[in-house]
Design a protein that fits this description.
Blueprint: E1 5-8, H1 12-20, E2 24-26, H2 32-38, E3 45-48, E4 57-59, E5 65-68, H3 73-78, H4 80-85, H5 87-94, H6 99-104, H7 107-112, H8 118-121, H9 164-170, E6 174-179, E7 182-187, E8 210-216, E9 225-230, E10 241-250, E11 253-262, E12 269-270, H10 272-278, H11 285-295, H12 307-324
Helix pairs in contact: 5-9, 10-11, 11-12
The chain binds iron/sulfur cluster.
C-alpha cells in the first residue's frame, strides 16, 4: 500500500474542504481499504468522516425517516423504525456481508462500494475500463458468470454489489448530498449510473460531493415485502440475483407494487412493467408468473450467465409469493 496522509474531519464543511484539496473520504472503510491494499485505489490523503456524528435515524415531518450517512449497517437494520416500517431494508442489509463488516460499514459508504468484478479487483489484469479507462473489458469475453444481464455496454458488464441499494430502490429513497456550494437531493433512481461509454463513473455525484443522509418517504409495503438473495453459498457472498419486492394488498387485490433486482446490472434494476402488470390483480401464482415473465423481457445474457434469466424469473416469483404473506406470518428475516 502506498503511504498517504490521514486526518479527521470535525465538520461537514471541514470534510468538503479537505476533499476539495485532494483528500478521499473515508467512512467505514470496508471496501476502500481493501482496494487500497490491492492497489486499485491509491489516494494521497484520506479524510476520516467518523467523528462527524452523522449517526442518527429520525422520523420526518412527512412521516418518513431520515437516516444520516454515518449510521452503520448494523444500527440501521436493527432500528425499530426500519424493522417495523421498512422491513425489506432490514432484510436486505442483514443478507449482506458479515456481522463484523456490518458493524463498520456505513449507510453512505454502502452506496459507494465498487463492483466486485474480479478483473476490476485485481490490477494484474490490465484490461478493465472501470479501473483504467480505455484499456478494454476483460470480462466481456472472459469470466462473466457473475456479470450483468441488463443495461451493460461493450465497455463494461459489471454489476453493483449492494443489497441495501436494491431495497432503497423500491422504497423510493432520496440521497441527500452536501457540496461546496450547498445541498441537493438525488432520487435513488437517478443516483447510480449505467456504464455506457464511461464505465469508470459509478454514480451521479460530482467531485467533492458528500452524502449526508438518505430520506425514506412513508412506505406502503410495511406489511407485504421481501428481500430474496440467491448466491453461491449461504453466507458472506454477493448476489447472483436478488429481488426486493413490495406489495400493498387491499381486500385481496394488489393496489401498489414495487420490484427491483440486484446482481444483474450496474444499478439496482427496477422492474416497472412487471410492477404495473400486478396492479388490480389478486396475489396469485398466475399474476406472479406473468410479472416475472415481463421482468426478464429485456435481459441480454453474456456467454456464461444465461442461467441468470431463469434464476431471475423464478426469484421474482418467489419474492412476490413471500411478500404476499402477511408480515405477522413471515419469519423474522433471512439469516445473516
Ligand atoms: Fe472492468 Fe467492468 Fe469489464 Fe469488469 S466488467 S473488467 S469492471 S470494465
Amino acid at each position: 500500500m502506498k503511504t498517504f496522509d490521514f486526518t479527521h474531519a470535525t465538520s461537514v464543511e471541514d470534510a468538503i474542504d479537505a476533499a476539495t484539496a485532494g483528500a478521499t473520504y473515508l467512512a467505514g472503510g470496508t471496501n476502500l481499504i481493501d482496494l487500497m491494499k490491492s492497489g486499485v485505489e491509491q489516494p494521497s490523503a484520506l479524510i476520516d468522516l467518523r467523528r462527524l456524528g452523522l449517526t442518527s435515524i429520525t422520523s420526518t415531518p412527512a412521516r418518513g425517516v431520515f437516516i444520516e450517512a454515518g449510521v452503520t449497517n448494523t444500527a440501521l437494520a436493527n432500528h425499530r423504525l426500519i424493522r417495523t416500517q421498512y422491513p425489506v431494508l432490514s432484510h436486505a442489509i442483514l443478507s449482506g456481508a458479515t456481522t463484523q463488516l456490518r458493524n463498520m460499514a456505513t449507510t453512505g459508504g454502502n452506496l459507494l462500494q465498487r463492483t466486485r468484478c474480479p478483473y476490476f479487483m485485481q490490477p494484474a489484469f490490465s484490461a478493465c475500463n472501470k479501473r483504467n479507462p480505455g484499456s478494454g473489458c476483460a470480462a466481456l469475453h472472459g469470466f462473466n458468470r457473475e456479470h450483468a444481464i441488463f443495461g451493460a455496454s461493450e465497455e463494461c458488464v459489471a454489476v453493483h454489489p449492494s443489497d441495501m441499494a436494491v431495497a432503497l430502490a423500491i422504497l423510493n429513497a432520496v440521497v441527500h448530498v452536501q457540496h461546496p456550494d450547498g445541498r441537493r437531493s438525488i432520487p435513488i433512481g437517478q443516483f447510480f449510473a449505467l456504464p455506457g461509454q464511461t464505465p469508470a463513473v459509478d454514480n451521479t455525484l460530482q467531485p467533492h460531493d458528500l452524502i449526508v443522509g438518505i430520506e425514506l418517504p412513508p412506505s406502503k409495503f410495511f406489511n407485504h415485502s421481501w428481500y430474496l438473495k440467491v448466491r453461491d453459498r449461504h453466507s458472506y457472498a454477493f448476489a447472483l440475483v436478488s429481488v426486493a419486492a413490495g406489495l400493498q394488498i387491499d381486500d385481496d387485490v394488489i393496489t401498489a407494487a414495487a420490484l427491483a433486482m440486484g446482481g444483474v446490472a450496474a444499478t439496482p434494476w427496477r422492474l416497472h412493467d412487471a410492477e404495473a402488470s400486478l396492479i388490480g390483480k389478486r396475489p396469485t401464482a398466475v399474476a406472479f408468473d406473468a410479472a416475472a415473465q415481463l421482468a426478464m423481457t429485456d435481459a441480454r445474457p453474456l456467454a456464461q450467465n444465461g442461467f441468470k434469466v431463469d434464476l431471475g424469473r423464478h426469484s421474482v416469483v418467489r419474492a412476490l409469493r413471500l411478500a404476499a404473506v402477511d408480515r405477522d406470518a413471515q419469519v423474522a428475516g433471512p439469516p445473516s
